[in-house]
Each structure stands twice: as structure tokens, then as C-alpha cells.
């Protein structure tokens, strides 16, 4: 679908397969794995409950200047399980009395970003363009498409996960009645150039944290760790799904559940750049971890844990150290641990990277109520550990 109005020229696609090859080449999508056609297609094909569409903004010569990845999910206020749960319930009840929120239908949420990954993985802008202008054009293009398409009955719009360096650009969204709010930070470990081995990393730690690491490695010594391959993933997927559900159930907030069948596609499409390890106690799987190498970074993805054995075997801590070992062995610069469990991640050296989201409701009155709600949304405070020697 093409939409050309004053100061706006945009193309829309309901599947990545519809997007012309010129778009991928013009925007250099191969520089970021999350914008590769193969990655987007894997997510799209394995999440039938989600709706997808993609926006490509064009310059005056018809050349692509911006790509936006959109997912539409059914959001339920009941999925808020942290200290905002009671407030979310009140907002929902109040909104339903005023007929602002659907009573029996799910809350339709449009997300520009990646539903399953933390970070700026929803908008790609070509070099040489005014990013402030582009972000406003993209907001307008998304709204135009939704308003002109009877297929979508969107309740709210969410543009997600912008780092502090982008805020001066993304604050342009306020002109479109989007409200910014802070979310749990992405925990990032910056790898020192002198770390050639995992032992080098251990030696860089203060005594207290080195003792803690060695204790975790000792407790997890009875675990056997297997590298999941294209040939072995099918046999292990069922156990992985059970462990993932335990983690997802424990999470304070989930936008949508991830379909682990996507891993099969990732392993074929991304080859050695997608990493999965499984952890066994004798013949029983008690954990798994996954991650993707994206340029000079390792991004931790989903994990699964048998919580009944986690403390005894230090399963999660062992995973964190294994992520670090992988990053060092691949000579990478950063390790993005993602959100959640910030304190334990800081104990292995990760530091918080603030992230901001922008939300707006399609109805102006509800949008004002949402603004009050978002003013109370704050990242969960945690103790930031400083494990490295000066």
C-alpha cells in the first residue's frame, strides 16, 4: 500500500516478503541483525497471534530513508504484576466506566520496536537525513495507515526502548501527544580490551566478587553444558519450552510470549551468530540460555531456569558467566544482558543503560489518564554493585 500526502511519502507492507530488495540494500540493514529480512521473517512466521506491518518512508526521489517495524498485540492490564498492579487495575476500572477501555475485548496495542528484545530495534534511518523530521514523519505515517485500514482497531501506540542519546530526537513525539516514560534499564557490560580469557575477567574483579564467581562455578560444576545445534534443537525444544514458561510466569511484565520454535529459524538464518546452550543435571534439563552476536556485541536473549534447583546449583549465575566467556572468546566489545535482575547483573560488572518508551492512546481523554498512569511508572530501584578493581 502506498500513501502519498503533503510532506509524507510512505509505503506499507504486511509481510517482509513484500518489501523490495532495494529497501534492504539502501538502508544497509545487514549492519544490524534485528533489521535483517531473515530475522524479521523468523519472528513474523512464528507468532501467528501477532499482527505485523512495516513502514518505509521515501525521499523526494523515491529512495528509502526510514524503515519502521510494527507489531500489534493483545495487551491485558492483568499482565502488570509489579507494584503498579493495583494502580493498573484502578485505571482499567475507571476507564471502563467511561467506556474508554474495552470490557471484554483485549486492549489492542501497536508497538514500533521489537516486542521480544530490549533496545532500539524498531526504527532504522538512513544517513544524511534530519532524524527529528523523520521521527515525526514516521509517527504520522503510522497513524495514517491505522486510520485508513479497517483491519486494525488500535487502542494505543507504543514506540519503545530509546537510549538517552536519542531522547533529543524522539521527544519530537510529544508533538503527537506521545508521553515518555522510563522502563527497566538494559544492563550492559563493557568488555576490557585486556581480557583475552575468562580468567583475565576473574582477575579484574575485586576479591569479594571473584570469590562469589568461583563459588557459583563450583556449585554449578555438576551441570553438563551442551551447545545446541541445528541438528539437536528439535529434540531439546520441548524441555526448553517448559523452562521458559517458568521464567515468563515469574516476570513482572510481559508484552507477549515468545515462541521458541523461532529458535530453529534463527539457527539456520544466523548460523554461528545465534547461540543456545542447555544445562543438564544428569539427564534432566534444568536451564537454557540464548543470545545473538550483533556486530561487536553479544545480546542475551531468553533463558529458562528450573527455580527449584537454581539456588543449589547457581544455574542463573553460571549462565551470566557463560555469556561473559562467550563475549570474550568472540573478541566482542559489549554484552547486553537486557532488562530484569539488574542487581545480580551488576554484580558481574554490568551497568544500567536507561531506556525510554513513548505511549499515546487514540482517545484524547484516555490519553490524559494514561499520562497520569505513566507519571507513576518508574524503574525498580536496585543496588548497583561495583565489582571491578579500580
TrEMBL record:
InterPro entries linked: Acyl_CoA_acyltransferase
Database matches in Gene3D superfamilies: 3.40.630.30
Name of the protein this chain belongs to: Peptidogalycan biosysnthesis/recognition
Species of provenance: Polaribacter dokdonensis DSW-5
Taxon lineage: Bacteria, Pseudomonadati, Bacteroidota, Flavobacteriia, Flavobacteriales
Amino acid at each position: 500500500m502506498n500513501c502519498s500526502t503533503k510532506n509524507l511519502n510512505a509505503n506499507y507492507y504486511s509481510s517482509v516478503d513484500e518489501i523490495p530488495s532495494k529497501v534492504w540494500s539502501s538502508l544497509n540493514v545487514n549492519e544490524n541483525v534485528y533489521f535483517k529480512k531473515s530475522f524479521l521473517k523468523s519472528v513474523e512466521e512464528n507468532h501467528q497471534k501477532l499482527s505485523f506491518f512495516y513502514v518505509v518512508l521515501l525521499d523526494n526521489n523515491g529512495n528509502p530513508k526510514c524503515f519502521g517495524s510494527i507489531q500489534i498485540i493483545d495487551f491485558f492490564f492483568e499482565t502488570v504484576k509489579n507494584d503498579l498492579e493495583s494502580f493498573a487495575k484502578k485505571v482499567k476500572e475507571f476507564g471502563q466506566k467511561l467506556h474508554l477501555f474495552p470490557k471484554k475485548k483485549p486492549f489492542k496495542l501497536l508497538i514500533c520496536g521489537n516486542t521480544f528484545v530490549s533496545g532500539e530495534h524498531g526504527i532504522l534511518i538512513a544517513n544524511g537525513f534530519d532524524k527529528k523530521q523523520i521521527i515525526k514523519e514516521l509517527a504520522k505515517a503510522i497513524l495514517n495507515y491505522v486510520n485508513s485500514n479497517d483491519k486494525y482497531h488500535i487502542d494505543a501506540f507504543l514506540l519503545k526502548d530509546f537510549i538517552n542519546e536519542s531522547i533529543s530526537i524522539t521527544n519530537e513525539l510529544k508533538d503527537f501527544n506521545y508521553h515518555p516514560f522510563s522502563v527497566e534499564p538494559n544492563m550492559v557490560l563493557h568488555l576490557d580490551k585486556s581480557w583475552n580469557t575468562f580468567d583475565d575477567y576473574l582477575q579484574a574483579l575485586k576479591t569479594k566478587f571473584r570469590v562469589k564467581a568461583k563459588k557459583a562455578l563450583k556449585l554449578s560444576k555438576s551441570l553438563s553444558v551442551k551447545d545446541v545445534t541445528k541438528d539437536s534443537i528439535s529434540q531439546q525444544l520441548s524441555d526448553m519450552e517448559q523452562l521458559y514458561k517458568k521464567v515468563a510466569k515469574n516476570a513482572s511484565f510481559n508484552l507477549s510470549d515468545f515462541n521458541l520454535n523461532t529458535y530453529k529459524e534463527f539457527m539456520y538464518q544466523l548460523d554461528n551468530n545465534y547461540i543456545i546452550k542447555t544445562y543438564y543435571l544428569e539427564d534432566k534439563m534444568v536451564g537454557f540460555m540464548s543470545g545473538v552476536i550483533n556486530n561487536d556485541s553479544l545480546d542475551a536473549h531468553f533463558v529458562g531456569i528450573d527455580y527449584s534447583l537454581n539456588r543449589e546449583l547457581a544455574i542463573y549465575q553460571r549462565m551470566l558467566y557463560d555469556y561473559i566467556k562467550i563475549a570474550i572468546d568472540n573478541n566482542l566489545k559489549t554484552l547486553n544482558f537486557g532488562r530484569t535482575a539488574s542487581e545480580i547483573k551488576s554484580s558481574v560488572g554490568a551497568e544500567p543503560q536507561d531506556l525510554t518508551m513513548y505511549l499515546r492512546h487514540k482517545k484524547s481523554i484516555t490519553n490524559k489518564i494514561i499520562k497520569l498512569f505513566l507519571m507513576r511508572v518508574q524503574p525498580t530501584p536496585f543496588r548497583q554493585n561495583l565489582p571491578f578493581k579500580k
